[in-house]
Every structure is written in C-alpha cells, then in structure tokens.
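User: I'm preparing a small set of examples for a lab meeting where we compare how different chains pack in three dimensions. I only have the primary sequence for this one, and I'd like the structure in token form so I can line it up with the others. Please keep the answer compact; I'll paste it straight into my notes.
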Amino acid sequence: MGELIDFSARARPAAAAPPIVGEAQILFFLGVRYVRPEEAATKTPGGGGKASSGGRKRKRRA
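Assistant: Understood. Below is the structure token output for the 62-residue chain.
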C-alpha cells in the first residue's frame, strides 16, 4: 500500500525570533483574465472560421 517514513523531530532554537510588528496584507488570487485581440472580438459567434466545429457535436470520452 505504501511506505511509512519515520522523521525525527527537529530541535527548536532556544530563543525564538520576536514577532514582526507592522501592517499585513491579505492578497486574493482571483484567476487570470484573458483578453481577446480586437479582430477576434468583432467576429460573430460561429462565424464559419476554420476553428469552428461545423455544427458537429464533440465525441464523448470513453
């Protein structure tokens, strides 16, 4: 099933560093914004380009 690895505990330093005093920031990563080039944004959806599927449905994955 798997291997068990026994890690030894590390010794803690005698004097811990004092806490940092000051402001903090919380940052949220909300994803990546994709911006299309202007010529692609002005085309109508399903405009018959080479990239369209021609109205065919995608095959289902087995």
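A couple of notes for your slides: The chain has a mean pLDDT of 76. The radius of gyration is 28 Å.

User: Perfect, thanks.
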